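Fig. S4 source data, part A: sequence.
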Amino acid sequence: DKLIRILTVCFSEDPLYHALIPDRDTRERLMPELFTCDLTEFFETCEIYADSSELNSILVVSDGTEHKTDGYLIKEDPSLATLRKFIQGKDYLNSSWTSQLHTAERLHVIYLAVAPKMQHHGLAEKLMDEVIDYADRHKLMISLETHNPANVSMYEKFGFKLYGIVQKKGFDLKQYCMIKQA
């Protein structure tokens, strides 16, 4: 429950979720369910780092395999409007751009979330340093994407470089794809 709450709070203003779920009430209702679906899968397939048992910040890292959130969208919105938005924005919901990297020796950051009241206290740095140290020891590339242009400079401070920008025609959203070489 704490993980779902922190993800919901931290991503409630994220450009991706605003583009996919424009209606505020629907977004507030749907996001906890989407994160519940994600976390069910992530517990089985990912590493989840936290700053402490209070979960003021978390980082979810995958080995790069594809993850999917399913079924809940149809149940939540029988008009299928939300599902259509998710289908339209599918290129922003996956990490398909990483196939261009031609390496399986990679970690992928899925979520980095710091509770708003705890931001600017070094928690993101603490979590990223842990993952970067692991990747360096194992000679792994790290990939990630963000939809918030303000995050690009933060990741650059960790040594990430902008690999490319995904922008689908007719969809007012940019996905900044970033890598940190091994």
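Fig. S4 source data, part B ends here. The first helix runs from residue 2 to 11.
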